[in-house]
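User: Teach me something about this protein's shape.
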Amino acid sequence: MSSHAVTEIRPIRLLCVEDNPDDVELMGIALERADPVRSYELHRVDNAASFVDALAGDYDVILCDFNLPRFSPYAALQILVNRRSNIPLIVLTRAIGEEAAVHVLRCGAKDYLTKDKLGTLPQIIGRVLEERRRAQEKERLDDELQSAYARLKELSARFVLAQERERSLISRELHDQLGQTLTAVVIHLHAAERAPGPQAARKHHDTAAELANGALQQLKTLSFSLRPAQLDLLGLVPAVQSAMQRIAEPAGLEWEVTTRGKEPATLEENAAVAVRLVQEALTNTVRHARASKVRVRLHFLSGNRISMLMLDDGEGFDKAAVLDGQQSERNIGLYGMIERTELAGGRLHIRTRAGRGVAIRAQL
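Assistant: First, the predicted structure itself:
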């Protein structure tokens, strides 16, 4: 039986604040006659203490008499406010003036009904319950919206930090490698000008040319790490294969790239994210995994979505210990992958055990 069907047959539980048991019995008869499809459970209380105790139960609606010798709808509404209860309260009375009716509604009652019109009580209860359901749904959506907004703020802050971290890495690469290489080129060119003879000058020129070629290769490597040219010219699969060749082969790793589905003719930004994830995963594998083989599986889904799985046969790691919530030098690469995936609107999952390698799955 479906949960929807169970909800339909569940009795509507009514908490009746009433000093006259006969009136409660009349309410039950009126509800049964006017609405034979649904069933109702009525529980009576007649004072503040029993009302408070009854609130521990799971009641759908409160029916409160307007004229009670020891209690009132106003006192009941105040108790509900103090307990932060959202159970709707309907006022029942034999007679009520317009001013009193408006006042009790302003104080929080959801509706009022004279006791000579109990035949309309099921409709009022149904409307009040629907209003409560809508209010709860709105509250749930508001909470989700607030959570999403908080998440967006967090991701925005992490995006700025990720940008600054990447700029810092690029700056360091330019200064420590390319900058030093070009400085050496300049030094050898100056040395060639001051050389005592043609042979010494030629030697300095050759060294400068060799260093210049090295600088060009460093620039190509840095450019590839930012955005591979193959991605725009040839597509995602060749770009991933090029990344595997550049990183895995020099480390002596066997590598394999397999695909499913058809790569779209026009790639979106998630393709660049996919290449960066492969680069970072391979770099981590080379540095830490002691693996012999790495594999990447690409699955092209509808709507330009990409599913990717990166596997190695290395020694694995303690996921809970490494991803402990605090970013450091030992886990900055993994957190960078998680941040990059989430900023692209995707999700990244890491599965690993000691001695069983690492499996990283990303949905972009």
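Now, about its shape. The radius of gyration is 36 Å. Confidence is low (pLDDT under 50) at residues 1-7. If you'd like, I can walk through any region in more detail.
User: That's plenty for now, thanks!
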